[in-house]
Amino acid sequence: MNKLLLLISLITSSAVAIANPPVETQPVETSTNAISFYSSGLVKNKAQSRLSFKTSGIVEQLTIEDGQHVSKGDLLAQLDLSEIIAQKRQAQADVKQSNLDVQRLEKLVSQRVAPKEKLDNALIRQDKARAALNIAEFNLKHSQIKAPADGIIIKKNIEKDELVSPGQTIIVFSPNNQGWVVKAGLIDREAVYVNIGDKTTIELDAYPGRQITGVVSEMAAQANQNTGLFEIEVRLEDQQLRLMSGLYAHINVHPVQQPVLYRIPTSSLISANGKTGTVAQMNPISRNIEFKTVKMHSLNTDSVFIAAGLNSEWPIVLGTPYNLRAQFAERSNTGHIEAVSSTVSGL
Description:
This protein folds into four domains: 21-32 and 260-344, conserved putative lor/sdh protein from methanococcus maripaludis s2 fold (Beta Barrel), CATH 2.40.420.20; 37-46 and 179-254, Beta Barrel (Elongation Factor Tu (Ef-tu), domain 3), CATH 2.40.30.170; 51-77 and 145-175, CATH 2.40.50.100; 82-141, Helix hairpin bin (Helix Hairpins), CATH 1.10.287.470. Helix content is 26%, strand content 35%. It contains five helices and 23 strands. Strands 2, 17, 18, 19, 20, 21 and 23 form a seven-stranded antiparallel beta sheet that branches. A six-stranded antiparallel β-barrel has the order 3-12-15-14-13-16. A hairpin with a 6-residue loop joins strand 13 and strand 14. Helix 2 (82-110) runs antiparallel to helix 3 (116-141).
């Protein structure tokens, strides 16, 4: 009888050992690796100008093509000036006539032959004529488009002999002296660590394998309403390459201000869904295992970097033994997993 009881006891002990194998743990490590944030965007000139005419008219001259380099003062486009020159001549004639009227009335008033009221009216007409001449000269000046600086024609939007409207964009122009930038966007948990002056590395699809250095030159104070991203501007420091607006760029931002991240082995991740995952930690007081819902920042072959959700004082369970996975799966299927702390006892 005693031998039978001993045999039953041994069998029971083995079953418990299989069902509840010992777990291996290790302390949570604070990551010392420098973190960079990836984004992408398009290259553009820092100061692109949209050039237009002040008045409507028919395009008489158009001397440029897309991508053409021009020098400051070069004539890029011009309207047919016939009507505008006629308006200027009319204004000049009105000024001349008003000057003669004022001179004549000044003499008559001084001789008390004409009332001063007539001279006052003549002076008003003179002011109006001079103003009309200024407008005509201004319109004539802005019926030509000249290069405001040395630069490149990004795009011409019209052709010769087309009728254009006042303010219509005729040419998109980029000056050479403003440099090239990339506009990109960061999610909120990345943007809070990025500051103006942070270094970046950039690779262009047009120059595969070649890295360009850059620096964060501008940063939005609020998210874009359409994308939800915080827009940054990165100034390219390598100006030796031939750059053009619209080149696709891959950016890695290396912030000086680094987030506090915790590193755990990839094998300790019980489940993952996007940036959210589940891990197991041991309560050092109760010796129970608790599931933790964590926010993952990034991962590689052997490590997961956790941004939030871990108890940094509790050891992480390694390898997620099969009975721990089974209990998590069972609780998950029945909806009894709590977001932060569901205790699994008996391990």
